[in-house]
């Protein structure tokens, strides 16, 4: 299938989701730029690949969640910026590795050539490898030290074998051996919980931890994160099944083409839309214990629910 | 070139370097086994690949350095075990990724098939990806929290773009554009400092930090680590140029075969041996401020200097 060329008609760098006047977009971009090493500190090729991988167009959903959660817990966004950058670095590395020929073999990401197409496979592997320690270095610099250590431990679990990486292994393994719909559904939910849910949930938790939130509020945000993560994945599946590649910014229809397990494959497009509606309602409901400072998180649910890329 | 089959005649699992009765070997192996997630916590394929990558035969040089440094600073080995495992996990991940077809394309490592030959490329990438956060999770659990945060920050820098990963990028880039011996020598030293020296030095530093060492002792161990790292790399180059594949446990002669920059290529085998002798002497000299508790580190210099694998 020929790849669509990136189009200026869709701005994949547009802040997503746009909440009010998007107070977080600019400070996230500036902080991401600042945290990457320049050519004076690492090989120029690596510095370039890191900038390409991290600073390309992106929705910045996870760092926005960090900042929104910090503010919903009475903290301020600037103090949570290292944690915001850390989750985006992990996300960016995981995309660069998932796109590799040995894995999803994707040529297009966020409307541009993937890292291994723009550079080469070795550089894509190594750029991803360098982003992981950088994320932990940012968290290790948080103050006080117990916040730093706690954030490192939380991100490590979300990015590790039991969550992010385990989800990708499950995702690649396919579902050949499973024949019953109930088994398939359970498997799909586990993949999503590991691959998407854990990083979305930990983003909210890191923001809350930096802001000194109570255990009760952490539990509320964890429950919210699980629903939001599921909503994000379900809408991602819908975009792949029904969306336009140019607008989505990456190849569409690829999931079905490679026999990948998705909600539309499992339950059909209409039932998947209804599932997304229910999940969005549950996400909003889980935020009830929080006051108006959590309104940006509520607005975000609607944006994810009705997104077109 | 046909690969030699692993031979029982050379025990690549043999403790290296053997210091006295090898007090550290067994507790390092046990701690590495304990820290890896089982099949109850991550996909069985990933659990298996992690065990294969980490628990295979290995010299365990870096974790031994952590424990020796802790003891040389008046600390005890058990308290430093999480840090010892952390550096070995980072080392194991870097080997699995360096061996990939897109990089060094090696089939044999430590006398066994490399991770991507035993499993597949995707699994080798993902096993490596999962080992990085696990290393930081172990450090984040150290107590008190400021030790945890400091160790995370130190390992992050040593494993990041400016050190370990940057060294591999430089190493892959080759030296085509450089014609003067002086330029080549500088480049080679920078590659070694980044790729080998930084992780060896940080191993010593983590052990010392866990033991509560003074800034002065940290500086002493840092200077020692730089010489030991160089010695290790120079002897590695010599083994590749002159060693027997069966004994070394990996393909030899490959550096020259692929036009890789090494000390024997740059200065000849004899001058490289003399350089190794000088470097070993400097390493021992740098330990002078430390008392007899550092004797295992002194014995280690001799073992690295005269190693056959």
From TrEMBL, chains A, B:
Pfam families: polyprenyl_synt. Keywords: Isoprene biosynthesis, Magnesium, Metal-binding, Transferase. Its EC number is 2.5.1.10. GO terms for molecular function: (2E,6E)-farnesyl diphosphate synthase activity; metal ion binding. PROSITE patterns: POLYPRENYL_SYNTHASE_2 (PS00444). Belongs to the FPP/GGPP synthase family. This is Farnesyl diphosphate synthase. It comes from Pseudobythopirellula maris.
């Amino acid at each position: 299938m020929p790849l669509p060329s990136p189009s200026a008609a869709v701005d994949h760098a547009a802040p997503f989701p746009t909440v009010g006047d998007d107070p977080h977009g600019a400070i996230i971009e500036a902080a991401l730029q600042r945290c990457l090493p320049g050519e004076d500190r690492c090989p120029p090729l690596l510095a370039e690949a890191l900038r390409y991988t991290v600073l390309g167009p992106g929705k910045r959903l996870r760092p926005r969640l960090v900042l929104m959660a910090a503010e919903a817990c009475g903290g301020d966004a600037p103090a949570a910026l290292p944690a915001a950058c850390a989750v985006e670095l992990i996300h960016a590395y995981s995309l660069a590795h998932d796109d590799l020929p040995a894995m999803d073999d994707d040529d297009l990401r966020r409307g541009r050539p993937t890292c291994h197409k723009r550079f080469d496979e070795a550089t894509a592997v190594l750029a991803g490898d360098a982003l992981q320690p950088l994320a932990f270095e940012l968290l290790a610099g948080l103050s006080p030290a117990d916040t730093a250590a706690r954030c490192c431990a939380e991100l490590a679990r979300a990015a590790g074998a039991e969550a992010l990486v385990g989800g990708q292994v499950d995702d690649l393994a396919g579902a050949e051996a499973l024949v019953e719909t109930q088994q398939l559904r359970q498997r799909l939910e586990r993949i999503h919980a590991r691959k998407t849910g854990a990083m979305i949930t930990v983003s909210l938790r890191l923001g809350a931890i930096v802001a000194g939130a109570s255990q009760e509020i952490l539990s509320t945000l964890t429950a919210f994160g699980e629903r939001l993560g599921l909503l994000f994945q379900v809408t991602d599946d819908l975009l792949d099944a029904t969306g336009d590649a140019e607008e989505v910014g990456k190849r569409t229809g690829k999931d079905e083409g490679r026999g990948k397990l998705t909600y539309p494959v499992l339950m059909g497009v209409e039932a998947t839309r209804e599932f997304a509606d229910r999940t969005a309602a549950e996400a909003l409901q889980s935020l009830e214990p929080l006051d108006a400072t959590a309104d940006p998180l509520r607005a975000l649910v609607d944006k994810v629910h009705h997104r077109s890329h």
